[in-house]
């Protein structure tokens, strides 16, 4: 199970969280793609290279997985994962 709130500091961390959330919900790449409005191959590519995702796609992907994106001051009280966790 994913922690309720994570601090994401890099594109690879975001990609890992999107992948983990998709798998935790037992969703296929195709199911996420249909909700986001892109091809399944695009979801596959973005899971491998999350730095290429547009903000619009990121927000749609989060919505498809029931996630929300939040921005705040660094050092706020959210769980931060160390680089070794990725």
Automatic annotation (TrEMBL):
CDD domains with a match to the protein in the record: HTH_XRE (cd00093)
SUPFAM superfamilies registered for this protein in UniProt: lambda repressor-like DNA-binding domains
Natural source organism: Rhodoferax lacus
Family matches, as Gene3D superfamilies: lambda repressor-like DNA-binding domains
Domain of life where this protein originates: Bacteria
Record-given protein name: XRE family transcriptional regulator
An example molecular function term from Gene Ontology annotations: DNA binding
Pfam families registered for this protein in UniProt: HTH_3
Record domain HTH cro/C1-type: where: 18-74
